[in-house]
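Per reviewer request, we include the raw input and output of the structure prediction for the construct analysed in the revised manuscript.
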Amino acid sequence: MEIILIFLLVVGLYKEFSVAPPKQKKPNRYNRYQRTAYNDASGNSVFDTLFDTGNFGEFLIYSCLEDLGEEHKLLTNVYLPKGDGTTTEIDLIMISTTGIYVFESKNYSGWIFGDENSRYWKQIIRGGRHFQFYNPIWQNKKHISFLKRHLGLGDEVFHNYIVFSERCFLKKMLVYSPEVKVMNRDELACEIIEDMTQRPEIFTPLEIEQIYNELSRYTLADDETKQAHVDAMKWRGP
């Protein structure tokens, strides 16, 4: 009987110490979407977010910025009027004590070659296929110029961020302006935290709230506004 008891005790101890703990599941895309305020901010449904490459890239940037804290006000898909009856669409804006950070999301893959002073940048994807796309720094500078005019603020307030996906390799990236940052998305949190710690505070919480309230009027655009913007882009370019 003692031998049987000893055997059962050894088996029990073996099970207790040898069975690996269950693996923690990584949060899936849907759960991540549900945890953020992106739906309320953008109006994009879960389907429109997770199954649209552009929207999904913007969502990932939004969720990253959201983790910085509620004191930083976020806006996405801002259709700002240009004065000629058309609009400019701004992917993301973050209003902080250290300025207004304006983001252009490029959820691309492949190798990216770019120069701040060149009109077009180059993308090379698998198989050696080449594509050109309009300089996103220039594109975002246009967005910032309309923001400056609309808000009546100076150049020193704005910071130009171009964010590519983690699937990109920024092979040759020549950037000269100190207010311009070009990076992969997985570098964004570190880059912006470092940027904010090195800049002086220029906005009070009240001023942040006032700017946010003014720009939030141009979010959640209706289908007519979005289509008019698309039609204007076809004729005029970025």
